[in-house]
Amino acid sequence: MTQNRNSSAMNPRVRVIPANMNMQRRGEGEEEPKVKVAAYARVSTLEEEQQSSYQLQVSYFEEYIERKPDWELYKVYSDEGVTGTNTKYRTGFNQMIKDAKEGKFDYIITKSISRFARNTLDCLTYVRMLKNLDKPVGIIFDKEGINTLDSQSETILVVIASVMEEESRTISANVSWGVQKRFSRGIPHIPTTYFLGYDEDEEGNLIINEEEAKIVRRIYREFLSGKGTPLIAKGLTKDKVKTARGNTKWTSDSVLKLIKNEKFCGHALCQKSVTLDPLTHKRVRNKNHKPQYFIRNNHPPIISEEDWNAAQKELERRSRMRHDPDGKYRRCYSNTAPFSNMLFCGECGVPVHRRRLTSKKNGQSYKFTVWQCRVSAMKMEADYECHTKYIWEEVIERAYNEMLLKMTKEIDQIRMEGEAAIKEVSLSEEENARLEEVEEIIDRISDQITEMSMRESITNDPIYDATLRNLIYESQIYQQEHENLLKNKEESIFMKKNLDILIEYLQGLQDFETFDAKMFRETVERGLIYDDYQMEFIFKCGVKRKALGWRRGKDPVEPLGLDTLEKIDS
């Protein structure tokens, strides 16, 4: 008897207490609170078919929740025209998560895992976060029949979400392949929504918007006249000229991008940027990640190819400006003074900069402007010394004008020197023949690529892919050779044009007292300032001329005449 009693004490009976018995008893007639359910709908594009899909999702959720007597629809959250692989730009989704954290509803119902997220990490992160809130929020995936508050749901969710993620990668790869095929056929994708100067006709062809084209032409005209991109942007903003997005605020970067854009001369370079990860959608500049496709004469040009090439050459000239001969330091281009970014020290190669100095005359202070080597002026650290003296700005201007006076007497000699310089950079007969041959090879390879791209094969054929890659690689090699030859040819054309401009300018020059800053920038490539006030100017046509400056004394110095210059040279 005692043994039975002890056994009973050591093995007490377990009485199960149902969950609803733990709940506080409600008053008579008081109803159970309904479960608040939020619905989430998403479509990835704004196409008409997708809009229909979105409406169907919303209607389905409303009817689905109405059929549940203990459910109450809190709100339908939605995102239209956004991808499911990243939640960054899904405003409806993010607002829903915020409201869930604030305990505004108990469940989220959505059509499927792919509507909620195609990124496995995002999907599981949000599921676990909502599940672990003080007031847990579950997600019901209707198509898969999963309730995330169910303990068995996460394993199934991981498998299905992973499949969805891989499906997204496959879709992205297929879309990318299709886009590249269109590019290889010469069919570019050029959106005109924010493309200044162009509109699209009913057939999808680019047509010039003349009002906007005037803005583009103005930018190129001002740039080629010597203005820097900050100054051009400032002028456009001041005149309240509208950008492609309708703003009146211009930036230096937006002007620079417009100048670099080959589409304004009628060509199209496709695949300038690429998406490396279809889940993050982060785009990067295409630096040999994938092939690019250059389509010539794709649409009507706003800027002539000659002016566009001149603008690229000017960009290159400005980008080459260095602080020292070894190219270790860079500086920004400016156009605040006639000689800005045009003068360099002839002794050490460092750019010469403008200074405002103060002196006294007859007890009165006065300011004057000079140009001096940055190392000599101790404005830049260097492991060497430079003792080039500063030279007055007005002395440079007057010495330059005196040089022009002398040049007007030797136009035949200038023409001969210019033609000799042009000949040095011009293509030889063999190189011209090679240029034509390379152009034919590139056209032939392009036709082969186009022909292969026309094959609508949906299967992955390794032989097809390898052949196409080989053709693209071969095309790139010939393209590089073509660009090098063409660059030399364009250089000779550029120099010939500037030789004609210089000779025409000298033939009509009559005023040798006024310094013409505009023509200086239009005809001169750069100037060098040596010790003892000597200067040398290199013109854009390859002609070089020396000028003699002088030390500015207390008394005004009369400009040197032609006879004086001839005596000094002799």
Tell me the layout of helices and strands.
Elements: H1 2-10, E1 35-43, H2 48-66, E2 71-80, H3 91-101, E3 107-110, H4 113-116, H5 120-131, E4 138-141, E5 146-147, H6 153-184, E6 198-200, E7 206-208, H7 210-224, H8 229-238, H9 252-260, E8 268-270, E9 273-275, E10 283-285, E11 293-295, H10 305-319, E12 343-345, E13 352-361, E14 364-373, E15 391-392, H11 393-407, H12 411-425, H13 429-453, H14 462-508, H15 517-523, E16 524-529, E17 534-539, E18 544-548, H16 562-569
Helix pairs in contact: 8-9, 12-14, 13-14
pLDDT averaged over residues: 77
Helix content: 40-55%
Distance N terminus to C terminus?
Answer: 142 Å
- Count of alpha and pi helical runs: 16
Multimeric state of these chains? single chain
| Low-confidence region ranges | 19-27, 46-50, 322-330, 554-570
Main sheet strand line-up:
2-1-3-4-5
Structural class: alpha/beta
Coiled coil: 428-455
Domain Recombinase: 195-321
Keywords: Coiled coil, DNA recombination, DNA-binding
Domain Resolvase/invertase-type recombinase catalytic: 36-186
Describe the structure in your own words.
The strands form six sheets. A five-stranded mixed sheet has the order 2-1-3-4-5, with helices on both faces. It has a four-stranded mixed sheet with strand order 12-16-17-18. Strands 13-14-15 form a three-stranded antiparallel sheet. The relative contact order is 0.06. The chain has helices at about 1-10, 50-65, 90-100, 115, 120-130, 155-185, 210-225, 230-240, 250-260, 305-320, 395-405, 410-425, 430-455, 460-510, 515-525, 560-570, and strands at about 35-45, 70-80, 105-110, 140, 145, 200, 205-210, 270, 275, 285, 295, 345, 350-360, 365-375, 390, 525-530, 535-540, 545-550. Residues about 20-25, about 45-50, about 320-330 and about 555-570 have low confidence and may be disordered. It is built from 16 helices and 18 strands. This is DNA invertase Pin-like site-specific DNA recombinase. Keywords: Coiled coil, DNA recombination, DNA-binding. InterPro entries: DNA_bind_recomb_sf (IPR038109), DNA_bind_recombinase_dom (IPR011109), Resolv_N (IPR006119), Resolvase-like_N_sf (IPR036162), SSR_resolvase (IPR050639), Zn_ribbon_recom_dom (IPR025827).
